[in-house]
Q: What sequence folds into this?
């Protein structure tokens, strides 16, 4: 016990100073944590209030603000312990260069995420096809783009992969074209088949009036004459309309006395002479 009392007597001032600095460091840390949470909530609320801003901006802006707050807090804590700020900046610069070379892929993801947010080839809620993956965009983060597939799967793609790949956005234009192709026999009445498809188009209220739906002969295939019904719908109506028309086309073709032929191939046999 006596050695501890002697140590306390000899270093009382230094221990008190260190305890004060640690207490201040703890206060600064918790203040940064509180400010970080407050900044995230404020940015999310601001993005929700401003309707023209993409909701994918909120996560990345929140992350950047949080990192900046913690960086300022770290500098303040080191300053409390007597670390020279100029020396710290020099050390951080040298370390940043080394880290940048080691983490170039990670930095590439950050840069790609920023470019995606600036150019915005897609937004949260858009259905896209990119790098061989399809799904609804959930969020654009500092490092990844997250998608949800139609069957409920979660997909996370690196930002650099998305930025460097071709992006097909099925939602962006607000409407999509349906091309429904039906084959009829060469022996069937061609005009009757076109009339069946035209009647289907006229009865389909989900088709947009401009461009107007059309029915035409699209190909003379090996086993059938292909007739195509083409029309435009909104993005939300695309799949329900396509599924309904596929069913109605088969029933209407058969009701009109036309046939949808199976693939056929003529085989000619020639006797061999001996």
A:
């Amino acid at each position: 016990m006596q050695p501890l009392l002697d140590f306390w007597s000899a270093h009382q001032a230094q221990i008190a100073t260190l305890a004060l600095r640690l207490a201040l460091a703890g206060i600064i840390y918790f203040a940064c944590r509180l400010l970080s949470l407050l900044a995230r909530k404020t940015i999310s609320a601001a993005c929700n209030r401003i309707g023209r801003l993409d909701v994918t901006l909120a996560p990345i802006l929140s992350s950047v603000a949080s990192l900046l707050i913690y960086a300022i807090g770290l500098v303040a804590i080191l300053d409390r312990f007597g670390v020279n700020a100029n020396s710290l900046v020099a050390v951080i610069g040298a370390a940043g260069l080394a880290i940048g070379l080691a983490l170039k892929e990670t930095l590439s993801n950050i840069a790609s995420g920023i470019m995606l947010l600036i150019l915005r080839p897609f937004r949260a809620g858009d259905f896209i096809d990119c790098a061989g993956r399809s799904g609804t965009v959930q969020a654009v983060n500092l490092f990844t783009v997250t998608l949800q597939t139609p069957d409920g799967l979660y997909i996370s793609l690196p930002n650099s992969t998305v930025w460097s790949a071709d992006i097909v956005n099925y939602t962006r234009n607000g409407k999509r074209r349906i091309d429904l192709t039906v084959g009829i026999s060469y022996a069937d009445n061609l005009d009757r088949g076109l009339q069946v498809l035209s009647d289907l188009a006229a009865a389909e209220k989900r088709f947009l009036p401009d461009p107007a739906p059309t029915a035409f002969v699209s190909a003379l295939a090996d086993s059938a004459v292909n007739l195509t019904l083409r029309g435009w719908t909104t993005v939300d109506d695309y799949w329900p309309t396509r599924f309904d028309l596929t069913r109605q086309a088969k029933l209407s073709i058969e009701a009109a006395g036309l046939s949808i032929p199976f693939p056929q191939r003529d085989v000619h046999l020639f006797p061999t002479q001996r």
Remarks:
- The beta strands are 127-130, 133-140, 144-148, 154-158, 167-169, 175-184, 214-220, 225-234.
- Residues 196 and 252 are 7 Å apart (CA to CA).
- The chain has seven helices and eight strands.
